[in-house]
Amino acid sequence: MATYQDIRGKRVKYLSADPSNSAAGEVWYNSTTGTLRSRLATEGWSAGANTINLTNAGGSAGTQTTGLIFGGRNPTVPAFVSTAEEYNGTGWAAGGALNTARAYLAGFGVQTAAVGAGGRTDAPGTVTAATEEYDGSTWTTNPSPSGDMGSARRMMNGGVGIQAAGLGVGPSATEEYGGTTWTAGGALNTTRYYLAAFGTQSAAAAAGGGTPTYSAAVEEYDGTSWTTSPGSLPAIRQSAGAAGTQTDGLIFGGELSGAVATNTAFGYDGSTWSAKPNMANSGFAGAGQGTAAAALASNFRSTPGVTRNTEEFNRSANVITAGAWASAANYPAAGFGGAGCGTSTAGLGWSGQPTAWNTLTCKFDGSSWTTSGVLPAGRRYMAGLGTQTAALAAQGAEIGDPEINTAYEFDGSSWAAVNSASTSKSMLTGFGIQTAGATCGGDTSGAQDSTEEYDGTNWSTGGTMNTGRANLASAGTQTAGIAFGGNNPPPATNASETYNGSSWTAGPTMITGVFALGGTGATNSAALGMGGYSSPGAPNQTTGTELYDGTAWATQPNMATARGYNSLSFGTSASAVTVGDYPAGNTAEIFTAETSAANIETLTTS
Amino acid sequence: MALFIYGTATNTGKGFFTVEDRRAFFLGGYPAEVWVVGNNEKGALWLAEKNGVEKTKAEAQALVTAEVEAAQAAWDALSEADRLVRDRPGPITLP
Predict the structure, then answer these.
(1) Is pLDDT of A151 > 50?
(2) For residues A434 and A392, is the Cβ–Cβ distance under 8 A?
(3) CATH code of the domain occupying A324-592
(4) d(CA A24, CA A431)
(5) Domain segments of chain A: what residues?
(6) pLDDT in tens, B6-65
(7) What are the structural domain ranges in chain B?
(8) Which of A153, A172, A297, B36 is least surrounded, with the fewest CB atoms within 10 Å of its CB?
(9) What is A44-320's CATH number?
(10) B26 touches chain A (CB under 8 A)
(11) Is the pTM of this model over 0.80?
């Protein structure tokens, strides 16, 4: 019997602990646990964020974390659409619209340099030769792509490669795109509609399709001609999704017979196919992007109709644990409109309404609340910032709504009055630390755009916000802050803006505008917003959660409970706590962001 | 013991099911937000955590069939030209 050394050329390491930098397939003996250990590669499908639009049969480009889908149709109308959506690995956001609405088009490239070409604009036969290029925000029609895309070639539904070296495939012909012009490539050996193509311009593969009989044929392209692969698909299908390269490809889903969808997936190594884990949902005529190790599937049509489902395929030596909200210990009393600061394991909450929340101050240690100190005056809608042992409570409103400008510092056990801010306002927000904090926005006979900075002793005027608003949330530091959401006037704004210590700069908009939300985050490039109202009045509280990564906002797992005025929130974008709901909520939830860890398992003989 | 649990749950997107879930129990999504879940502890816990509503197999099948029949009716109402470019949705039978 071959030994590990025979196979790998190395002996099994004898280690006292699992290594921190192991490679997939590596085996070692853990002398502490007395077990044979290995880092295993696993693969499978998981849920991605739902798409915004209900479409299928569109074009696609990009990767699993920088994906792009565009065009397509909605069979329930049916309408050919021009919409585009961008995926950042956690959520979809609207992209620029195509100039020519169409479906069954070829798509290739990356999210910031993509191509959409050919396709159908209406009933069968109404095809277009239009070629459009995307720069990450706008589609521009190539005015003279030259190289005639003959009418027989205009209904391409396979596209591979990059903008400067792309390939439109099918049904019988192939056209190569050089960034400006199309030139004829080799003809497929088997004419097929709705085939699945993957790879590059000079090393592509085309699998399945309809002749119109459903096919299992596979062909490979070398940049000049197509060769039939000896490795046929294990099962016939058309309209499958595809990703990867000619020697490490993946196809998924597809139509097995008239409107009968499958969830099966297969990998291709350049000569043979192997079964891969099934998707959770069956579908066909969807979009596929990425690699065979990190693929994205979306906009599939199930048997009765199109869905918004997105699934992600990952082959990894790591275990990815999805982000999630979990219930935390109930706050000692029920209310809303409080303030908070600190971390999820050393947090502080105070103030709010009704009376039971006015002066209440509680510490959170990650599992339980402990009453600690009493705010000298009853308040709600205050700004809160700092840490559990060095917090600042500023401005807000007395019950009955007179806005005030008073401020208090918390030293870990009690509150003490400090210099007042210059402006009396409530429904504002605060970020930073006790010796370098800022409050902004708010309301006093109208939405406010002012900022005030606190240095631990004195207040000074800061920059003016681009969008004045009340009931907003914030995160970060005095010199790297971010404010988001709010209302001016209702229903809600999705605007966000960042602060550099002196001025505000408009940032990407949130996916959904909400006000009276909770907000957490240590920097202006890592913020979390949760809950809030989409429009005034109960029951318009929401469960939504959005994460800002410094580039864009993306959806996160929803909270279990819809919340509004849950401004008693603290923590980071990776671990956050939120409490309360209008008119009287005492439940708390704690958020843990997605994590990744090496998939190390014990090897056994059974 | 039955092989599967049947239920309805709204797919909330990212994180709704994970690779680890897929390894721990069978999971299949169907129209009408019907999910067929492997009948083990982790499968049952998953459905509960997703605020799912457990159904009998017959109830779940009825939900799926109703959605398919609605799609079939929509197809039947299409013009001849539109019918030519798509197939009539076929029945779906839950496992």
Answers:
(1) no
(2) yes
(3) 2.120.10.80
(4) 43
(5) 4-40, 44-320, 324-592
(6) 999 999 888 899 888 988 999 999 999 999 999 999 999 999 989 899 999 999 999 999
(7) 4-84
(8) A172
(9) 2.120.10.80
(10) no
(11) no
